[in-house]
Amino acid sequence: MMQRHTLRAYTLAELMVGIAMFSIVALALQSAVLLASKAIPDAKGVNVNQLAASRTAERITSELSFALTFTELTANAITFTVADRDNDGVDETIRYAWSAVAGQPVTRQYNSGAAASVLDDAREFAVAYDKRAELQATTYTESAEGLLYSYTGALLSGAFNVDKDEWCGQYFMPTLPNGTSSWRVKRIQFVAREGESGNMRVQLRTAAANGTPTNVVVDQQRVYGAPYSSGWGWQEASLANAGGLSPAAGACVVFRGESDTEVDVQYQNLTLALLGGPKYFQTINTGTSFSLNALRALQLRVYGTTTTQDPDLYKYYLASVRLTLRCGPHTAARVHAGARVLSAPEVAGP
Questions:
Q1: What pLDDT is recorded for position 39?
Q2: In whole angstroms, what is the distance from residue 158 CA to residue 169 CA?
Q3: What is the per-residue DSSP string for 255-282?
Q4: What is the band of 277 on the pLDDT scale with cuts at 50, 70, 90?
């Protein structure tokens, strides 16, 4: 027997519910499509903005490559000169700048003319600089003359009779500031008297390890006892070529006699409390050998200068300039460019 199948019809209520559900789904799909379309940049707008930024970057870098000097190097502005273009004998000045306010233009100013826009609606204009540092030759500064060493006192004194056979002297270590690279003796003051109106040389010599003088005479001056008074007084010898002395070493003042007649140089007898201080020495065999005497000291003042090395000095040269440009709201339109500065001019550092 054949069976008949009948189709069940939807009621009006079921139909209304179905239509409502379809409307909700359709509205949701429409919203999703709208949001997605807003999230995707306008390809045409990106391309237009990127092309505008690229053209501006190309214009700037082409001029930067042949720049001669730079007078302004900041994050949002650059000013430079290029060779004379109008035969007036004066180089041309070009300035590119941005106010760093989104939407404001990047401008170009040529010489004293008005600044004109080269990129509208700018959102980025950043300039970075690659500099080459060059260490300059070391320089030194010599101080004004000052007191380098002094030993004076009021102890019991005696006279050393300086003649051609018998000499005396003293080792000293100058007081030097930190960083001294060398020092120079200009004047030596000592206490002396006429004696027998002899003459002697006041010498500056290098010192042996034990504080006695070597045979190396750094500089010297001949002095005469005749002008000295018969009483003790401070005398002076000037040295013109006693420079370049090592800050790690002291030196010796030597009173070398040149005549049979004497010049008297005063020494002081030290107390035990002062032993180990000044290093007094003398010779009785024309300098063949020197002996130290810890119980004596010469009154000395040594004046001179010190030389210190100046801080390292660098000069900086501009090797290249890097640019970042963007106009319009899309970050995808950002453009990076760079230019090698052929003249590599000197600029401020760092």
A1: 47
A2: 14
A3: EEE-SSS-EEEEEEEPPGGGTTSSEEEE
A4: low
CATH no. for 140-309: 2.60.120
pLDDT digits (tens, 9 = 90+) for 86-123: 999 999 999 999 999 999 999 999 999 999 999 999 99
Amino acid at the residue 299: Q
Q: Please tell me the pTM assigned to this model.
A: 0.67
- What's the pLDDT at 11? 62
330-345 burial by CB neighbour count: b if 16+ within 10 A, else e? beebbbebebebebee
Which distant-in-sequence residues (6+ apart) come within 8 Å of 99 by Cβ? 76
Residue 282: how many other CB atoms lie within 10 Å: 20
Question: In one letter, which amino acid is 158?
Answer: G
Contact in structure between 46 and 321 (CB atoms under 8 Å): no
Q: What Rg value do the Cα atoms of the chain yield, rounded?
A: 45
Give the mean model confidence (pLDDT) for residues 229-249.
Answer: 96
Q: How far apart are CA 192 and CA 169, in angstroms?
A: 13
**pLDDT attached to residue 44:** 62
- When the pLDDT of each residue in the chain is averaged and rounded to a whole number, the result is 90
C-alpha to C-alpha distance for 96 and 108, rounded to whole angstroms: 5
Indicate the helix (H) or strand (E) that contains 38: helix 12-39
Higher pLDDT, 41 or 221: 221
Partnered with residue 251 across adjacent β-strands are 172, 206
End-to-end CA distance of the chain: 104
Q: Which residue has the tokens 């970057």?
A: 57
Give the residue extent of every domain in the chain: 43-135, 140-309
Calpha distance 320→24 (Å, rounded): 60
Looking up tokens 């003319």, which residue turns up? Answer: 113
DSSP string, 201-248: EEEEEEE-TTS-EEEEEEEEEEEESTTS-SS-EEEEEEEEEEEEE-TT
